[in-house]
Amino acid sequence: MEQLKTIGRELAMGSQGGFGQSKEFLDLVKSIGETRSKAEEDRIVLHEIETLKRRITDPDIPKRKMKEYIIRLVYIEMLGHDASFGYIHAVKMTHDDSLLLKRTGYLAVTLFLNEDHDLIILIVNTIQKDLRSDNYLVVCAALNAVCRLINEETIPAVLPQVVELLGHSKEAVRKKAIMALHRFYQKSSSVSHLVPNFRKKLCDNDPGVMGATLCPLFDLITIDANSYKDLVVSFVTILKQVAERRLPKSYDYHQMPAPFIQIRLLKILALLGGGDKQASEKMYTVVSDIFRKCDSSSNIGNAVLYECICCVSSIYPNPKLLETAAEVISKFLKSGSHNLKYMGIDALGRLIKISPDIAEQHQLAVIDCLEDPDDTLKRKTFELLYKMTKSSNVEVIVDRMIDYMISINDSHYKTYIASRCVELAEQFAPSNHWFIQTMNKVFEYAGDLVNVKVAHNLMRLIAEGFGEEDDAADSQLRSSAVESYLRIIGEPKLPSLFLQVICWVLGEYGTADGKYSASYITGKLCDVAEAYSDDETVKAYAVTAFMKVYASEIAAGRKVDMLHECQSLVEELSASHSTDLQQRAYELQAVISLDKHAVENILPSDASCEDIEVDKNLLLLDNYVQQSLENGAQPYIPESEHSGLSNISNFRSQDQHEASIHGLRFEAYELPKPPVPPRIHAASLEPSTELVPVSEPSYSRDTHQVETAASISDMGSSELKLRLDGVQKKWGRPVYSSSSPSTSNSTTPNTVNGVTQVDGAVNVNSKTRSTRDSRKPQVEISPEKQKLAASLFGGSSQIDKRATSANHKVTKAGIHAPEKAQAPKAAVVSNQVTVEKTNHQPSPDLLDLGEPTVASTTPSVDPFKQLEGLLDPTQISVTANHGAVGTTESPDIIGLYGNASASGQSSSSEISLTTNRDDVNFTVGLVDATVSTAHAGTTLPTQFPKGLNPRDSLEKDALVRHMGVTPSSQNPNLFRDLLG
Amino acid sequence: MIRAVMVMNTQGKPRLAKFYDSVPVDKQQELIRSVFGVLCSRAENVSNFVEADSIFGPDSRLVYKHYATLYFVLVFDSSENELAMLDLIQVLVETLDKCFKNVCELDLVFNYSKIHTILDEIFFGGQVLETSSTEVMKAVEEISKLESASNSINLVPKSVSGWRGR
C-alpha cells in the first residue's frame, strides 16, 4: 500500500516535474537560468540555502527526499556558494545500505570534501567496510572515494584492502585498484614498497588492467628510467601486439587498435630510449610499423603519429625514422586544421634539436602559423622560433616577438615573451646598437614586467662597452644610447625601471660627448623627476644623475649654473620624507660647492666600472689617529668592549666602520631599492655621533662610491645571462664598502673567462643557402613572406650551439657583425617552397565535426524553405529542423537563434527561447558530428544509430515544455517573426 | 594527469566541474570564470588548444570543444597528448549522447548524478580509465539497474529516454 502511494506520488510529480526530481528543484534550476545578473542569482541561491538548511535537519525526512537535497547542495556548491552545513548529511548518506543512496553520498563527499577535511575520519570506516563488500559496484564507489579523500595519514587504513583488490575477479575493480594505488603513490612515499605490484599487474590478462598499469609505470619511469630498462622488451612486445590488433575489438577506437594504450606506451618508450642506443634499437621496428599503419585521416590516428614523432625525437636517433617523422610533420603542417598545425609546429620544435635543417622545408608553413590569428598557434610558433634562433636570424625573430608582445594584454605571457626577447638579444645580439634599441623597446612596452637585473645588466653593458679596447666604439654606443633615451624620455608613462636606466645613463654619459649641455640634460632629468613625482626610486636616480652631470661640469672647469627648477626640486627633496632622497639632495648641494680637484676625486668621470678596492683597515687614517693619540685622545675601544656611547665621537669614521662590521641594521630605514647602504643610516642614527658636516669631502665621496658598490653587488649577483666573460670588470673605485659580499664576486670575473667561448668560429655557413635555390618561387607567395622566410631560415643549415651556461659573451657581436651583414639579405630564397597554399588538402577531420568541410557533399538547401516546411502548426518546434537542414546551414540557424535570444530579452518568453535554443543547438552540433563522422567515411562504420531524426527532438522538446520547464508562451509567433 | 573536467555553457554558467586536485570552492569558481574568459574570446575555426599556464600554473594545457551551447573543457599536464584529450572529449560527449539520446544542456542540468557516474567511468583519480563509450555505457547501465533494484522506492528512472519509454 505504502508503495503504491509512492508510485502515485511519483507519477503525479512526473507530470509536472519530471526527470526524477521534484518540482522545486526544477523551479530552482529554471529560475537560476532566467536570472540576468549575478546578484539575482545569488539571491535565489541564498533563499534555496535557507530552505535546505531548514529542511535537511528534519529528522523524519524520507531518504529519497534526502537524496534530492544532497544533489541540490552539490548544485549550489557548483554555483559557488557555501554548502558546508550539509556536508555531514552527505557523509551520513554514505553509511546507507541502499546502493543508490550510498553512491549519491559518495558522489557528494568527493565533491564537497578535500582530503584534509575533518569529516574524512567519519568516512574512513565506511570505506573500509565497502572495500570488502560483495557487490563490486559498492567496491568501485568506495575506490572512487578513496582516490579523492584518502590522505597520507589515512592511507595505511585502506591500503591492505586496496592491495587485496588487485586480485579481484572483476577487471573493472582491478583497474580501479591499480589507479587508486597510483594515487597513493603520488600522495605519499610510504607505499613505495608496492611498486612491484605495478610490474606484476602489467601481465594481467585483461588488457584494460594492463593499460591502467601503464599510468603509474609512466610516472615511475619519468622519475627513474634506469631501473625499468629491463621492461623495454615487454613494452615493445605489448605495443607490437596492440598495433597488430591482437586486442579484442572492443578496445578499438575509431578503427584504431587501443590508441590510448599505444600513446601511453610510446611515451614510456620515449623515456626509456632517451640516450640509450641499445634500448632504442629494440624500438625502431615497432615504431616504424606504427608510422606505417597509422591512419592519418582520423584525429586519434594523428595523436598516435604525433606521439611517434615525440618518441623518435627523444630516443637514440635513427635516420630512417627521422625521415618518416619529417614526412608526417610536413603533412601536419600542410593540413587545414589548426590543431594539426599546432601539433606539427610542436613536433618540428622537437625534431630540429636532432636534425636542424628540417625546419627549412617548412619555412612558409611556419610563417603562416606565425601570422595566424589563432593565439595558441602563434605562441607555439614563437616557441619554435626561439628554439631555432641564431645570430643570423635573431633580428627578425626578436622583432616579431616584440611586435607580438606590444599587441597583447595578457601580462603573464607578456612577461614570458619579454624575458625570451631579452635572453635572445643578450645571446645573439649582432650589434651593440641593435641590442640597445631592442632593450629600449622591451623596456618601453614591458618595463614593469621584466626583471630588475635586466636593467642593471643594460646599464653595465653601456658603461663597460662590449669589452673591446675600442674606445671610439664604446663612446659611440653611449652617445647613441643617450640620444635614443633623450628621444624616448618625453613619452608619457614610461615604466619605472626604464626611467631608472635612462636617468643613470644620462647622468653618466649625458654630457660626455659634448653634444648636449649640462642644463639641457638636467632639465630633462628634472622633467622626469617631476612627472613621476610619486616614484621615489626614479627621483633618487634623477638626483644622483644631477650630481654626476654637475660634477663633470666642475671637473671640466665650467661654472655650474643650477637650473631654477632643479634648485627647487633639490630643496623640496632635502625636506623629503624619504631619508634616502634627503641624503642625496644634501650630497648634491655639498658636491656642487666643492672645487675642481675635490670633485674629480669624488666623482671621476666614467668610472662606474672601476674596481673598488676596499681599504678595510682604513690605513689612510692611521696618521690622523696617531696624531690624535699624541694629542691626548682616548685610544679606540672596540664597540664590543665598551658600554658607553659618548666617548668615541671623535672617531666618527671608525665608528661607522665598526657599525657596519657589527651589522647594525636599521631595517626601518631601508628603502625598497638596494643602493642605500645601511651603514650610512647607521651613522646618521648614532645618537652620539655629531651630524656629518656636509662639506667634508671624504663623506660625500663615500656615499657616492658606496652607492656604486651597491649597484655592482646587484649585478654581481645577477643570474641573468649577459655575457661578460672576457670583459674586464672594472667597477667602482677603492672604497671600504665590504658590506655587500658580492662586490668581491664582481671583481673576479676573469675566472669565468673562456668557459663558454663556444661561438667563436661559429658562422661560416651563410652561403650554403644559395646552393639550395633549386626551385622557382611560387607565385602565390608574397615577396614579403619570402623575405621573411629567407631571413628566418636562410643561411642556416647549422644552428649555433647555444651556450647553456649563463655566461656567453655579448662581445661576440663583434664577430658576428660582418657575417650578419651578408647573411639574410643576400638572396631571397624560396627554396623548397613546397607549401602551396591553394593546395591545402582539407583532409577529412574527425575533430572539426560540424565544420563546413563536410558540407560540400550535402546538397545545399535553402534553410528557410526547409524551416517553413517543417513548421508544424501544433508542435511548433524548430528543433525539428536540425536534421533536414543539414550541416551546410546549421551555423546560420544558430546565428538566428542567437539573435533571437538577444532581442527577446525582456519578454517572458525568453526562457522558452533559451531553453529551446540549448536543446536545438546542441542537438544540431551533435548531429553534425554524426554526419561528419559518417562522412569521414570508410573509416567509420556508423556507430550512431540515431542519426538525423527530427522526431526525437520534437518529442523531447514537447516533453520539456510539458514538464513546465518552458513557460507556456507560444513559440510559433516568435519564430515566425524571426523567419519573416 | 588530468587536472580538471569542466562543462560550461556559452554564458559561462558551470554545468559540471570536477577537479582531480584538491581545489577549494572559491578557487574553483575563479578558475571556471577565467577559463570561460579565455574561451569566449577565442574565434571560431582556431585550434582547440590553449596554453593554460597563466590560469592553472606551470605545465598545464587546456583542450576544449564547443558543442552548440556548451563548452567541454579538459585541463591536463604534459604527460598527456593534446589530440588524444580532444578525442576523450569526443568520447565523453558520445557517451552522453548515447545515454540521453540527443543530449542537450538540460539533460546535464537535470541528471547531475548520472553525469558524474559517466565521468567516473571515464576518468579515475586524474587518469583515463576507459575510452570506449560502449563500455562506459555498459557500466553505467549496470549501475542504474542495480541501483533501482536495490532501491525499490526509486521507481522513476533517471533519464528522459527511460521516462518516455514507459
Automatic annotation (TrEMBL), chain A:
GO cellular component, one term: membrane coat
Keyword entries, A-Z: Golgi apparatus, Membrane, Protein transport, Transport
Subcellular location: Endomembrane system
Single Gene Ontology BP annotation: vesicle-mediated transport
Ranges of Basic and acidic residues composition bias in the record: 770-786
Residues covered by region (Disordered): 687-714, 732-786
UniProt biased composition (Low complexity): 737-751
Cross-referenced InterPro entries: Adaptor_Complx_Large_Subunit (IPR050840), AP4_complex_esu (IPR017109), Clathrin/coatomer_adapt-like_N (IPR002553)
Pfam families in alphabetical order: Adaptin_N
UniProt superkingdom: Eukaryota
Residue stretches making up the Clathrin/coatomer adaptor adaptin-like N-terminal domain: 53-595
Classification via PANTHER family: ADAPTIN, ALPHA/GAMMA/EPSILON
Role of this protein: Subunit of novel type of clathrin- or non-clathrin-associated protein coat involved in targeting proteins from the trans-Golgi network (TGN) to the endosomal-lysosomal system.
Family from the record: Belongs to the adaptor complexes large subunit family.
Subunit and interaction comment: Adaptor protein complex 4 (AP-4) is a heterotetramer composed of two large adaptins, a medium adaptin and a small adaptin.
Protein name: AP-4 complex subunit epsilon
From TrEMBL, chain B:
Domain AP complex mu/sigma subunit: 1-146
Domain of life: Eukaryota
Keywords: Cytoplasmic vesicle, Golgi apparatus, Membrane, Protein transport, Transport
GO cellular component: AP-3 adaptor complex; cytoplasmic vesicle membrane; Golgi apparatus
UniProt-listed Gene3D superfamilies: 3.30.450.60
GO biological process: Golgi to vacuole transport; intracellular protein transport
Presence of keyword Transport: yes
Family: Belongs to the adaptor complexes small subunit family.
Name assigned to this protein: AP complex subunit sigma
Organism: Carya illinoinensis
Organism taxonomic ancestry: Eukaryota, Viridiplantae, Streptophyta, Embryophyta, Tracheophyta
